[in-house]
Design a protein that fits this description.
Strand content: 15-25%
Helix content: 25-40%
Shape: globular
Number of strands: 8
Distance between the termini: 34 Å
Largest sheet: 8 strands, mixed
Amino acid sequence: VGLPRPLGRKSGGATLLSVIEQTRLKVSRRTDAKKKSQLGQFFTPVVAAQLIASIPRLPECGTLRVLDPGAGSGVLTAALVNRALAERPELSIEVVAVERDPLVLPSLRATLAACEQVGGDRVRAGAVRADFILDSVGLDASLNLDGQFDLVIENPPYGKLAVSSAHRTAMRAAGVDAPNLYAAFLSLSVAALREGGQVVAITPRSFFNGPYFGAFRAHLLDSIALDRVHVFDSRSTVFADTGVLQENVIFAGTRGASPAVVELSV
């Protein structure tokens, strides 16, 4: 699914995000429900993407290196680029967006191209077709992302990992027992950050308590200090157009930082 029309640099953020949202809706509607379930796909609505993109710290100048794993149609990257262009006139952005679904990749590449068009020489964005888990820590790993990024922004896939699955086996071999796809994504995302880099993610709320995620939670909080936690007062709010009822949370954390004040919002 391509973008309906090209965007010029004067098109503005509202136009960019409205076009990207239409692309997201088309991709979501054309993706088989069984396939969504198998891949754990939940495409991020633009309103949620804007909220997520409003959370990370943005430097005043220089170049911000961003990773968007499980990027889908690219709406999170678009929302972040839109914010940076409006708020940080001296800041450039380089984005690496990772996506495994070949049917979604054309839409992702179109989104990234639109971001580059609007941002001009301030935005560089590229898509990588890869399985973020297996290509990061599997036997034939081809991704080498560790320690390279200032920010990871993500809506990782949701779904349990069987004890005998290739993904869980690869994560255990890397020293992390991740019982769920999103837990594996978060662990690898933190590894991709430089010291002082920030991860901002929307996930199910389930990993915040209980023994099932105990080992993963300990690993995560040994790696990052929480900066902010945002919860929703209705579980039907975030992915309303998908019919998904899910207790979600957005959280931000900084790699290598010492725990301090955590901002809570609803």
